[in-house]
Design goal:
mainly alpha
């Protein structure tokens, strides 16, 4: 029975994500993706005209989710727990993709994410500690956000998700340590 077009696209994305995570974006060929799916390269090109188009299709949900989250927390937050929890959820939801992108840093540039990631992190830092915090406060925000991101990338998704509250508490402790009057 022939595959439904939407199923084929989803299968292509899943296999590409798996291979990008294992080998990196640059070292994965469209031929390998097609072979793993037992489809022709022509069929793959029908759905994704280039490897860059496939990467963008993988990255778009992360881009949309992150932009929505950054808009949600635009400006100083009264309760950092909510922001850190939302960031944890975003990172876990997209952890496999983030791992794949970090496995091949060139893919970040190819996907057009470098500047966006820096902007998102800068805006989240500012929401947590203000626009011009002292160095210790900025370090607390960097450790809090970076730690949450690393947990989602380093730990298996189920393990990370199971320890959400502990991760958020640890991130809050780092944030509090930075803002506890060390400025």
């Amino acid at each position: 029975m022939p595959r439904a077009q939407s199923d084929t696209k989803a299968e292509i994305r899943a296999v590409a994500l798996d291979l990008f995570g294992q080998k990196g974006y640059e070292k994965t060929s469209l031929r390998e993706i097609a072979e793993r799916l037992d489809i022709t390269k022509a069929a793959l090109y029908y759905h994704f005209p280039s490897k860059g188009d496939l990467l963008r299709a993988l990255v778009d949900p992360l881009r949309q989710d992150a932009q929505e989250m950054v808009r949600r927390f635009d400006g100083p937050v009264d309760e950092p727990r909510e922001l850190l929890g939302a960031y944890f959820d975003l990172c876990v939801r997209h952890g496999t993709l983030m791992h794949a992108l970090l496995n091949d840093l060139g893919s970040l540039a190819e996907a057009g994410l470098v500047e966006l990631l820096m902007d998102w992190r800068s805006r989240l830092d500012a929401a947590l500690v203000g626009e011009n915090p002292g160095t210790p406060a900025r370090m607390g925000a960097v450790v809090a956000l970076g730690g949450i991101q690393d947990i989602a990338v380093v730990l298996p998704p189920g393990d990370a998700a199971a320890h959400r509250e502990a991760a958020v508490e640890i991130a809050l402790a780092a944030l509090r340590a930075g803002t506890s009057g060390m400025d």
